[in-house]
Amino acid sequence: ALGEFITKELLTLKNLSDEEKKLRFRSWWESYDETTLFLIHKCFSGALRFGVSKNLIIQALAKVAGVDKETMSFRLMGDYIPTPQYYSNLLVPD
Q1: Which residues of the chain have a pLDDT value below 50?
Q2: Per-chain mean pLDDT for the chain
Q3: Which of 2, 36, 45, 4 is nearest to 27 (CA)?
Q4: Element (H or E) spanning 44, and its range?
Q5: Would you call 81 helix, strand, or coil by DSSP?
Q6: Are 62 and 71 in contact (CB under 8 A)?
Q7: What's the pTM value of the predicted model, to 2 decimals?
Q8: CB 62: neighbour CB atoms within 10 A?
Q9: Contact status, residue 58 vs residue 69, Cβ threshold 8 Å
């Protein structure tokens, strides 16, 4: 469900005007339950924290992919689109 929300809702915001974004946000308030709205608010306010350091995430992803931390850090640089294909490519050992 979260992946679908990201793909169908969040990623499409960049192509909308400010007025269209306002309308989209209002439609979310009418469409989603309190838990989902809480998470949306936390994401947009920057207040969503999981308590995991960046270095720990890099280390874990590197271990799963079978590469060193420097290689994983390089792979994580720059822009990305959070899609299943992106994550699959991120974890390829080659």
Answers
A1: none
A2: 84
A3: 36
A4: helix 34-45
A5: coil
A6: yes
A7: 0.46
A8: 19
A9: yes
Handedness of CA 40, 22, 26, 82 (dihedral sign): negative
Residue 45 has a CB neighbour count (10 Å cut-off) of 8
Q: What's the confidence (pLDDT) of residue 81?
A: 79
Residues 46-56: pLDDT tens digits?
666 666 678 88
Crossing angle of helices 18-31 and 34-45, in 10° steps, is: 150
State the burial class of residue 90 (Cβ atoms within 10 Å of its Cβ: 0-12, 13-18, 19+).
middle
User: Residue holding tokens 């290689």?
Assistant: 71
Q: d(Cα 28, Cα 32) in Å, to the nearest integer?
A: 6
Nearest to 44 by CA among 86, 1, 87, 6: 6
Per residue in 13-37, is it b (16+ CB within 10 Å) or e — as a string? eeeeeeeeeeeeeeeeeeeeeeeee
